[in-house]
Amino acid sequence: SSTMSFSEAEVQSARGAWEKMYVDAEDNGATVLVRMFTEHPDTKSYFSHFKGMDSAEEMKQSDQVRGHGKRVFTAINDMVQHLDNSEAFLGIVNPLGKKHATQLKVDPKNFRIICDIILQLMEEKFGGDCKASFEKVTNEICTHLNNVYKEAGW
To answer: Keyword annotations for this protein (predicted)?
Structure first.
C-alpha cells in the first residue's frame, strides 16, 4: 500500500482549509450533493428517495440529502485528521471504498466528481489559496478509493 507524503506544512494548511468548510458541514455537504445531482443527474439513481426531487431547493431541504452530505463531510474530516498517519487514513478509506464498491455499487468516478465540487465550493467561499491547499488531499482520497475498487475487482 502506498504511503502518503504530506509535509507538516501541507498537513497544517489542508486542515486549516478544511476547517472552514467543516464548520457548516451539514449545509456545505448538502450544497455539494445538490450540485452533483443537478450537474450529473445520473448520480441520483443511487439514492432512491431523491428520484422524485427535481428542484435544487427541494433537495437542499431534504433530511436525506442533508444527512448524507453530513456523512460525506464527517468521513472526509476523519481522513483529514489522519493525513500524517497512512495506516489510520487507510483504516477509514478502505472500509468506505469497500462498502461503496461491493454493497452500494457506486461508480468510482463519482468520488472525483464530489471532490471537484468540494474544491469548487471552497474556492467560491474562501478563495483560490484555500482550494489549492486542499487539492492534494482530494487527489489522495480519490487515488486510495480507486485502489480499493481495483482490489474489489471493479
So the answer is: Cytoplasm, Heme, Iron, Metal-binding, Muscle protein, Oxidoreductase, Oxygen transport, Transport
CA distances (Å), origin 103, targets 96, 121, 149: 10, 29, 12
If we measure between CA atoms, which residue out of 20, 7, 24, 27 comes closest to residue 129? 20
Dump pLDDT digits (tens) for 127-148.
Answer: 999 999 999 999 999 999 999 9
Question: Which of 100, 104, 83 lies closest to 146 in space, CA to CA?
Answer: 100
- Grid cell 480507486 in the structure block, residue: 146
Which residue intervals of the chain are DSSP H helices? 8-22, 25-39, 56-61, 63-80, 86-98, 109-126, 128-151
pTM over 0.90: yes
Residue type, 118: I
One-letter amino acid for residue 131 of the chain: K
CATH number of 8-152: 1.10.490.10
| Residue 138 CB neighbours (<10 A) | 20
Q: What are phi and psi of 26, to 5 degrees?
A: -70, -45
